[in-house]
Amino acid sequence: VIQECYVQNTAREYAKIYAAEAEPLEGFGEVPEIIPIFLVHRPANNIPYATVEEELVGEFVKYSVRDGKEVNFLRKDSEAGQKCCTFQHWVYEKTNGSLLVTDLQGVGMKLTDVGIATLAKGYKGFKGNCSISFIEQFRALHQCNKYCEMLGLKSLRTTHQKQRKATSMKSKNLPNSSTIKNTVPKKAREPRDFISSEH
Q: In which residue ranges is the amino acid composition biased (Basic and acidic residues) (predicted)?
C-alpha cells in the first residue's frame, strides 16, 4: 500500500512538471492530472492501512495499459489519449529512459491508479510494479503526435533503431587489441575465443 502511494504520488509530481512545461505552449491546452492518493492508518481496524483518493465520476477510460502497449486507436485519437502518450514520452526522455509511467487511466484528464516501470529495480526507490520489458515495448511502439512535437521530444523510433543497430554492431566487433595479451601468435587467434566483460 505504501509503494502504491509512492508510485502514484511520484507520477503526480512528474505530471506537475510536465504541466508547467506544456500549458504555456500555444495551442497545447489542458494537461492530464494524476490525482493524489493518501495513506490512512486505522490501528483499531482489522485492515490497519487504507488508501483514499478523490472519486472520479464519468466514463472511466484506459489510455495505456500495464504492459507498455499504447492506447487503442479510438482512445489514441482522443485529446486525452494523445496527451497521455506524450506524457509517457516526456517522462521517458526526462529520465533518460530509466522510468516510464504506464497504466494511464481515468476520467477525462484526471488519472488514477497508474503504474511505473523502471529500467533497473530499485531506481529511485521503486520496487517496479511494472516489468522492465514494458519500457522496451513502449520505445518500440510509441508513435509521436502533435503534442510530442510541440514539446520538442525526440522520436523514439530513431533512438530505438540506433540503439538496436549499435547493439548488433557492438556484438560483431572484436575486443580492441589493447585488451588482448600477446601470448598467442596472431594467426592462432580466433575471434570467438576472446570474451571480454567490457564489451
A: 187-199
Q: From CA 23, how far away is CA 31, in angstroms rounded?
A: 7
What tens digit of pLDDT does each residue of 113-130 get?
A: 998 888 887 777 776 656
The residues annotated with a catalytic role in the active site are 103
* Closest of 103, 129, 123 to residue 4, by C-alpha: 129
What is the number of structural domains in the chain?
Answer: 1
Letter string b/e over residues 57-96, b meaning 16 or more CB atoms within 10 A of that residue's CB:
eeeebbbbbbebebbeeebbeeebbbbbbbbbbbbbbebe
For the full predicted model, state whether its pTM sits above 0.90: no
Q: Is residue 161 a part of any domain in this protein?
A: no
Residue 12 lies in a domain: yes
> Domain holding 137: CATH number?
3.20.200.10
Q: Residue 113: give the domain boundaries.
A: 1-151
Q: Is residue 167 part of a domain?
A: no
